[in-house]
Every structure is written in C-alpha cells, then in structure tokens.
Amino acid sequence: MIDFVRGRVIHWETEYVVVDVRDIGYQVYTPNPYYFAKSDEAVTIFTHHHVREDATLLFGFATREEQSMFRKLLDVSGIGPRVALGILAGGKPEAVAAAIQQENIAFLTKLPGIGKKTAQRMILDLKDKLDALPAGFGGAASGLVLDDVFGGGVAASAEGGTVWQEAREALAALGYTAAELDRAWHSLKNTVDPDITVDALMKKALQQLFKG
C-alpha cells in the first residue's frame, strides 16, 4: 500500500498530477490538481493505492481528512473511486460528513454523480462510521452548519448568472475564498461563452486561480 508520495509536481492535467519521486514519475488522480501544481517545491500527497484487474491507480489528497473520507466513500455500494473523487472535488470532507450526519439529501445530490438513492445509501452506510475518521474530524462535522460552507456571500452574488453561481459554490467548497473567486470572475467574465457548462467554467476558473 502506498500511503503517500513526496516530490515535485512536473506535469498536471485537469484530473491528475505527475509527481517526480527520485526520478520516477507517479501519476496521481486528485480532486484538485491545481492545488498541488501551484507549488514549485516538493509536495506531500496522501494517497490511496487502488488495484483492479486491468489497472493500478493512485488517488491523491492534500490532507488525511480527504484521504479518510475517500476510503469511507468507497465502502458505499455504487460508489467507485472516480465518483468518490468527484464528491471530494465538489465538497470539503467536513461538508460531506456534515451532510451525511444531518441526513441532508439536498446537499448530497448536488455532488457530482450522486442521485437520491446513492445519497440515501451514503447516509445509511456512513452516518455511524464517521467517528473513525481522524481525531476531531467527526465532531467538527457534526457541528458544521452547511449554510456556512456556501455562505458568506459566495452564493448570494447574482453576477455571472446561475452557471457561475453553481461553479462558484463548488470552487468555494474546494477552499477558495470569496475574494479569490471574485478576482477570477473579473478576469474571466468577458471571455466566457454564454452557453458554457458549469464544469467547463470551473476548469477556466481553476486555471485563472492557479495563475493567481
């Protein structure tokens, strides 16, 4: 089992980064490749080593909390590693944990790849297991109000229309501040196609956020 890798990111795409570890390049799929690509120094990526018949894959995370939540999500029937990765791309671990503990199906079904039945299975399978996450994580989640995650003016701004509001909420869940998102939108708004999708707009915004 590969628990983490440490090295310099030498290449990144929208779904993964390549980490140079002693002259070996590890391809690591991660919820937010741009987070690691921002650094010119060596980074530590906590990993989940996934082995199947036709592939051996590494999924990577910035924190132990993300790593633990990813592994918990894999225990839910119908959730594979790609869907679990998408969930963490759409919401912070503490927000996902809070939604599960609060049985907030409306929040869970906003996450990528999650329908009502899967959300119900997440609650049924995981609600009593969150205490097994890193110390203090479950307790923090139980006290988290989900409005706080997407509050603070993030979803309140109407500028950019519904598509930008949805993209902004997802980006806020990745940890970007309202000020950072405002700057990104200011740089992007005159170049965005009116028919752009939420996913495509998120990718453009992430590229802008990476540039700073």
From TrEMBL:
Region (Domain III): 163-212
Single GO molecular function: DNA helicase activity
Entry's localization field: Cytoplasm
UniProt keywords, alphabetically: Cytoplasm, DNA damage, DNA recombination, DNA repair, DNA-binding, Hydrolase
Pfam families named in the record: HHH_5, RuvA_C, RuvA_N
Listed NCBIfam families: ruvA (TIGR00084)
Subunit note: Homotetramer. Forms an RuvA(8)-RuvB(12)-Holliday junction (HJ) complex. HJ DNA is sandwiched between 2 RuvA tetramers; dsDNA enters through RuvA and exits via RuvB. An RuvB hexamer assembles on each DNA strand where it exits the tetramer. Each RuvB hexamer is contacted by two RuvA subunits (via domain III) on 2 adjacent RuvB subunits; this complex drives branch migration. In the full resolvosome a probable DNA-RuvA(4)-RuvB(12)-RuvC(2) complex forms which resolves the HJ.
Free-text note regarding domains: Has three domains with a flexible linker between the domains II and III and assumes an 'L' shape. Domain III is highly mobile and contacts RuvB.
Similarity comment: family membership: Belongs to the RuvA family.
This protein's name: Holliday junction branch migration complex subunit RuvA
Organism: Paenibacillus oenotherae
